[in-house]
Amino acid sequence: MEYAPLAITITDVTGKVLRTITNPARHSELVSESAQNPNNKYQIVIERGNLKPGVYFVELRGDKIYRGKLIVK
Q1: What residue segments make up the domains of the chain, in order of their start?
Q2: CB-CB contact of 27 with 36 (8 Å)
Q3: Calpha distance 10→56 (Å, rounded)
Q4: Is the Cβ–Cβ distance between 37 and 21 less than 8 Å?
């Protein structure tokens, strides 16, 4: 089965794109097996990096589009 390429985009509240990660599976430091949730085989870890405290929006695009919030303290 062939899957669409994945892309993760992080934007601030104004819609400015701060970070884009294409094909996260190619970045072994980002993807690991999920021990906390047996229903999801893998998890993607996004490092805070230079993100200041605040609310950000995360979009995962592949076969479908998933959106969520990221809160940095």
Answers
A1: 7-72
A2: no
A3: 7
A4: no
